[in-house]
Amino acid sequence: MLLKNRRILAILPHPDDLEILCAGTLTRLCKLGFELITATMTPGDKGSAVLSSEEIAAIRREEAQAGAKVVGATRTTCLEFRDLEIVFDNTARRKLAGLVREVNPLMVFTTPPQDYMFDHEITSQLVRDACFNAGVKNYPAEGNAPPINGIPYLYYTDSIGGHDLFGNPSPLHFVIDISAQIEHKTEALACHDSQRSWLKKQHGMDDYIDSMRRWSALRGEQVGTAYGEGFLQHLGHPHPTDNLLLEILSAAPLA
Question: What is the pTM of this model?
Answer without folding.
Answer: 0.95
